[in-house]
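pinging the channel bc i need a second pair of eyes. not urgent but kinda urgent?? the chain im working w is below, pasted from the shared doc
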Amino acid sequence: MNAALSPDERYLAVTHSGQSGADVRLVDLAARKVVDTVKLKDSWFGIKFKGERLYVSGGFQNCVYVFDLREGSLNAVDTLKFEKPHPEYSGSVAGIDVNATTLAVVLRRDSTLRYVDIATREQRTVKLSGMPYACMFMEDGTLLVSLWSSRVIQAFRGLDRTYECPVGDHPNEISVAPDGLHAFVANANDNTLSIVDLRERKTIATVATSLYPESPEGSTTNSVALTSDGKHLLAANADNNSVTVVRWQDPHRPAPVGFMPVGWYPTKVMSLRNGTVLVLNGKGEASKANPRREYIGGLFKGTLSFFDFPDEKRLAEYSRQVYENTPYNPHQLRETAVEGDSPVPNKVGAPSPIRHVFYIIKENRTYDQVFGDMPEGNGDSSLCIFGENVSPNHHALAREFVLLDNFYVDSEVSADGHNWSTAAYATDYIEKVWPGFYGNRGGVYDFEGSEPTGRPAAGYIWDLCARGQVSFRCYGEFINNPGEHGREATARVPSLEGHFAPHYRGWDLDYSDVDRYKAWEAEFTEYEKNGGLPRFNIFHLPNDHTSGTSKGKLTPQAYVAQNDYALGLFVERISHSKYWRETAIFVIEDDAQNGPDHVDAHRSIALVISPYTKRRSVDHTLYSGSSMLRTMELILGLPPMSQYDAAARPMSSVFTSTPTLDPYTVASPRYDMTKRNKPGDFGQNLMDGMNLSKEDAVPDLLFNRIIWQSIKGTPMPPPRFSIYSGPGGEEEEEDD
């Protein structure tokens, strides 16, 4: 996630804060290899050398680890504690810096700045006005702090805030010019760098770091560095997999001059005195298959890229490659390619015969888990645990309408999945916080709108509907359920207030998906009688997540059977209504984390159900969750929200211009939807301590293993990578 150079630039210390574990690694830059690794209980963004002493953020351990660098190894010498570790205190050390006498630390969860006197260990605390990310000392002792939750950096002299300077949205890393006159701030939510004049205490220039000016969110600029010769700025764009090169001569007119292609999700860029550029790639190189049930959160091995700073010719070559690698271009904001004669328009605002969209978001299944038994598609039946005997409606809908066997979710887990499914984007807050939470190292599940810092700048699809004057209604997505004693359901984001069904429960595995259907059906019947059906309707239908083998709970198969039957009821009711002729139903999993797939860990089930669907077809076109969002947006006459849905291929190939109005008849359950786990079922003792009251608050790899063995009756096979894993398919220790 972050790195620090030793003073002689022989070594690079790197923090790892992924789902698989936390550590700090020491890289010999001449040999280009890791020479030491120290496991940590947690770590996060902060890391800093002061001489041969290294300070490392302890994340939710609410401490800073202190090491001495000796002969190519890290030797632990101290731990500076600020609060008790999570869960006793929710602070989480983020950015750190150190000068001759003082260590400065910001804790993001409690929004505090802490100073530690290195000699006496005395601590002082300043309450901040927002969630911090990074901090950096100036030569005169002034400390700059970026507020992740705001659009400002703040300056402190000791406990006193001396000034505040507006910058871009989601300010991340801060760098300062050697002369101390200018600061550079990476702004993740609006694809920019801010140039701050530290004497005038104001932003004097804003640099667009995306490939095209005025692009929607989706570049995620989160690191900035000045080259060693002081002539160029380098900005890491996490979601463009690139580094922007900016000519730095006139502070008032910084000029982007090109791009460098790097790995997947770069989180740190640095420049050595010899001109070498270093880039940390948070997710490594490529996605992988998980045929032996490897957990998706641990599949992404971070990498370190080395570049010689390019001359003008090489930079032009690099830039061409970045443009070729990037499917987005601004023309797609208005118009996109649509295959054949389709009811999906190719221009934003063009009419469509489809007026009503129903969007159903389910939980966590891969293609092979559910459709692996369908010979019509590219499935692996050995990985299928919820086949046609458990999910007859999923299978019937895929056969009667369209089977999509090359569909991929953009997400890894539910934390980013509900954001990708509703915004075609997950902010840097989501991407940087969920791995530690899913690694059980601390934090809370605040990824579905409840933490404002995690919300995308452009909002969610319901915000898009509101801007476009498209009526909408929400059933369970981003909603807090009603509690006891009459407490009403509440929306997690203000824009859903007045637009959600208060009697439709969101996440609650003790509540039946069939009852969710009934709650919706009562409203739908009123719409049939009185009119006013919203054009866009979004649902959370979560029970295919299951409760594993928890004592007294439904079996995994019963949960999926219940979910399957509810889905069939939804489609049957809509297809027998007066709205059917003008309707399309889209079904997606928020992520594919809870199972194996022989093609890719992101491949998942998806359904498109409409009179305009090409009946009884199999479509091998590569589509993504952003493709589904783009398709719905075009049908509703709406523009894209991010670079991802703008660039995504609309799902036009699954449609035809000639409707077939035959309705769907629900298939009766084939598996007992009331069957419960028996005492002593496999893994039940391990399930007893798991928290299923919130999404993904359980150790998912263990949870997946329990489900697998409870159904298959055999242990989960040992991990291996398939040929689809890309270069170097051999087994490796997984880091992310």
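so Residues 718-736 have pLDDT under 50 and may be disordered. and The longest strand covers residues 73-81. — does that match what u expected or am i reading it wrong
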